[in-house]
Each structure stands twice: as C-alpha cells, then as structure tokens.
Amino acid sequence: MELLPRSPAEFGSARYWDRFFQQRGQRPFEWYGAFPELCPVLRKYIRPRDKVLVVGCGNSELSEQMYDMGMCKDIVNIDISDAVIRQMQERSGSERPKMSYLRMDMLQMDFPDAHFQVALDKGTLDAILTDEEEATLAKVDRMFGEISRVLQVGGRYVCVSLAQAHVLKKAVEYFSEEGWVVRVHQVASSRDKQQFILPVFVYVMTKFRKIPGSAPQILEICPEEQDKPMRVESAERLVGAVKDRQHYALLCSQLSKTSCKEQVFLDLCDKESGRPRYTLHVVDSPSVKPSRDNHFAIFIIPQGRETEWLFGTEEGRMQLAASAGFRRLVTVALHREQQYKGMAGIQAELSGKVMELAPPGLPAQQQVPFLSVGGDIGVRTVWHCDTSPLSGEYVVEDVKGDGTCYFRRLVFLRNRNVVQSEARLLDPVPLPGQKKRRKDKKKPMPAEPPTAIDKSYLCCEHHRAMVAGLCLLGGPDPLPGTPLAVLVVGLGGGSLPLFIHDYFSQAHVAVVEIDPSMLEVATRWFGFSQGDRMQVHVCDGLDYVAKLAAEVSALPHAAPAQYDAIMFDVDSKDLMVGMSCPPPAFVEKPFLQKVKTILKPEGVFVLNLVCRDARLKESVLATLREVFPLLYARHIEGEVNEILFCQPSPEGWRDPAELGARARVLEGALRQPGLPWDSSYVLADMLQAVKIL
Q1: 53-64 residue pLDDT tens
Q2: Quick one: 567 and 506 in the same domain?
Q3: What CATH number does the domain containing 648 carry?
Q4: Family per UniProt (predicted)?
C-alpha cells in the first residue's frame, strides 16, 4: 500500500490526506513521540482550564490521551482532511463530549482573535515545511500568522518536531522577531522502544506583546536530563545546540549496533556553564574474546595525566583497552576548569550517560565497572591563570603523577592536551632548627603537594635528548668544565637552560623569548633566575639571530661566530600549519644560513621538530641538509617530536657507537659532588637510536 506522497507538495493537499487516512483505516498514525514521552513536557505548558487548539490533528491519539488523563478537556482539533475528521468524530464523539473535531484549514481559520491559550502541533509544521522554496515559506508564514492571531497574550504555541535545521531556524526567527519567548525541549525517549533514531523536540513559543524597537531576544534550550533552561545568544546558537544533540543521538544509535573501527570522541558539557566537563573516547578491541563480564567498562583518567601517551594518544588508548581486557572501553578525561567529588561522584554523574554508549550484545542488568589508576581521580591544583597577547590563555598547575611524585606544568589552553613545560616538585626542606612534621598514625595527613622545583630533573624526553647532543661538540672530551656559549630560543618554564647552566659550570647561556609573560611565569612558578651566566633577551628569535649574523658578516675577522651550541625549542602559534614546532620561518633556508653564521665551525645546532605533515617534514629535512652537511636525528618514542642535531662541517662525523661512548663520558662528568642526579636519566640511551640523515 502506497501511503507516501509523490512529492513534498502533496503534504499540503487535502486530497492526499483523505486518501492517506482512507487507506490506513482506523489505526492511529503517530509521526513520532508517544504520549508517555511527551507528557512531562506538555504538563508544563498545558493547564486543565486552558482552551487548546490542535492543528493538523490527523488520527493521532494525543488529544484523546490528554483528555483521558485529565491534562485538559476543552480541546478543539482541526485538520484539512474531511475523511479523518469524520473518523475521529465517530471515535471520540460520545466518550469525550467536551472535545471537538472540525474540518478546517489552519492557514485560514474561522476562530476569533485571542480565542485559545494553547496551540498544539505534532508534526504538522514538519510536514508543511519540507523545503525552503518561496511558496513553502509563504505558506508557513500564513500558518504562523494564524496561530499568532488566535492565541491570547501569554498563550503558548507548542510544536512537536524532529527539528530539522531549516524548520527550527524558521520557527525561532519568526517568533523571536515578533517578541515571543522561544524555548526548545529535548524529549526524553524510551530507548528500548525508540521508533526514530533522531530525538524528538518540543518548541514552546510564548506570546508577548511586541515592544517597539529592538527588544532582546529570549532563546532557551532544555536538554532532556534537566529542567532548568539554558539561555543561548542567537538563533544560530540554538540551532547548533539542537544539531549537537541530534549528532549525539545518531552516534549512540550507531555504537549500539556495531563496533567502531575508529576511535570516537565527544565532550560532555557542564549544565550551568556549557563548558566541557568530560571528554570521552570510545575504544573497541575486537581481538578481545567475548565473555559475560568483559563487554564494557569505563576508565577514569586521573587528573593531569590525560596528556600521557597511554591516555592521550590513539595507540596508547588501544593498548589500554586491550590490557584492561574489555571489548569496549570508554576513557574519561576530566577538565581543569571543573570540580569533581571523587570517584563515587563521577560514577553517579556519568552512569546514565555512558550507558548510551554501550556496545551491542551487552547483557541486561549488566554491572559496568568504573576503573582508574590506583582507584582515585588524581590531584590537580591550578595556581595561576592568565592570558598573553602572544600565547593566549594559559594555566600553571600542579598534578600528581604516577606514584607519589608531583609535577608543575605550563599549559596553553589553545592546545590543552599538550604540556608546554613541566618540572618535578620536591618536598620542602625544613629550615635550620625547624623539625619536619611527623605523621600521626592515628590522624592521616592531608595530601599536600610539595612546592620546591627539582632543577636536576628534565621531565621532557626531548630536553634530555637535546642535552645529550652536547656530546657532539668538538674536543677529545665533552667535559662540563669546558667554557661553552649556548643560545636557547624558546624559554617556556626555563628547565632546559637552567639544567645547562647548573650542570655545565662554565657555560654562558643566552635565552631568547618573544613573550614577556613566559619570562614572568618561568621566574615566578618554575624557579628560573638570571645571573652572570644566564641572560634572557625578550625579543623575536628571528630578529635576534638575524642581527648577530649581520654583525658577524660585517666584521668576519673582528667578530667570530658566537655560539658552541644553538638550541631551538620554540612552538608555533599557528595551529593551522602541520608543524607545531618550530614556526615555519625558523626552518627556511635563508634563516638557517644565518644560524650557521653565528655557530662555531665545530659547534652543534639542535632543533626540536614536531611535524605531523609528512611532506612538510621531508621538505624541512631537505632544507637542513642543504645548509648543514652533517645531520643526525633522534625520534622520541611515543611522541611526534624528533630531535635534529646539525653540524656545519662533515669533518665532525661520528658513528653511533662513538656517540654513545662520548655520552657516557659526559654523563660521568655531569655527576658532580653536591649536584643531584636522577638515575633514570642515561645520556647514552638518548643517543642510542640516533640516525644519520
């Protein structure tokens, strides 16, 4: 039986609807939204004494159910189809005496002005507004005009819809421009028997007298899980918020039917602020053999550890899911702007939501475990938030690492999953005559993070490799007591130049940093300080190098090359480029030639390269080879970083075995009395996997 129209235009034809209802017979036809799902929303806006108009009633049971449940009695139903009106009069006439059915075109109604308190529309607007042709929009304007005319001031137009973008946008723009309050509810669906994949929405437009001039629009959305409406700024934002919920419903439907071949991620936002509260990644492991208890689990990433390889990369999460032994694992990252009430609070908050992401075949009433490292949610303390004109928003925070160690981090919020700088913290040392607090066995001490910076520890693997590269410097023994002139471009928290300053006792370090805010951060929060052998120049690294190169070129005999080592550890502010470190201008050939000019012939240029674009990376390497005849590369495992060691003369060539030997000599010399040394830092290991390019 063919019940669908040959063209969308037939949805407005009385002839089509007569034929439709004659063929369908007495069976009720519900477009979407069963009464039990709609009832909680309708009760908010339809009162027992209201006079209600139902436009385009069809043979839906909605009016009958509202009547029978006592929601309201004075209901007038209209429809363009004579066949369905006769059918509904026969069905309800004697049982519901206060409810009437009339054949009437809602584009030209016979009712007097301000006759109703509520106009109810279930799917009628969706059926009419099938496209954005001029004739269709004109018809919808007539419909809205008639509804507006027959409603009293304070009356509500309640429209049940699937909220296609053009439908919602038209309704919101029309009524908000008329000065009405517009609120959109997402209807809570019975997920077991959901007829439509897309969620159902109810628009509620409340009529107010139009105020001359430009009165502010009042636009709100009520997600299904909360009653309190959220104010939005514009029709575009409201349409976007609805579209996000539609995409989420489609995603949940897809995940409930099949395994995901690629990892899926989404943000769950705070109800009050609308800012992200949880970031979820859905990871499926088809290789895990199914059993009753290993279908599904939730893993809470401890605060501050979301950037680690295991939690912050696709490969790491795959490994985590496989080792956990679950066919689907949802990892949950916590956001620094939010407050959390422990694991139990997070579990209570997320339990209902994560079940929407459950895999196919999950047994009924299956308990879904919440996992974490050590059973807690970690510790994160934000000490400082600010905005730099150059670097944007940033935070300084302390986080608890694996075990008992605490770390201080600098994070740029434009790239919040990347730690810009990191330093390990030390327990405070008691002052002379001051006793260290003893722990009372009966009274557990609060977990207070330490505050002193451990300057001996390089947290970043690429910083360790950059320091190890100093063994490439000329001379029989690369000893720390040898006078060195080192240029570091990019300060960050200052841990790299601080380590060189402290462990190479004759080194003079010049640091170039374009952002004055970073010098303040490094000094205040990371224990950085200047002195006779450490000087910071707040300027553009491109200008600084160019100026020195010009001086050397102008007086080649009087002004010899300045530096034994030049290190670039500078991030790009342009996130659209496939290279986040360094900025592209730092690896252009003319500038690299200037770098070579201020580097001693036996010196080494060390570059931290972070490039995800394979073609761009190959281009950078080719340019480096044109300028520097000798080029070594050390890839940082589990990271995108690659440390490049460039030398201006091929005569400095050393095979990897010799590099390892020189690194061991250098490490032995760095282990000086009175200076701490972290045993996990093995310089030879840093150069073990070096490739000669």
Answers
A1: 999 988 888 999
A2: yes
A3: 3.40.50.150
A4: Belongs to the methyltransferase superfamily.
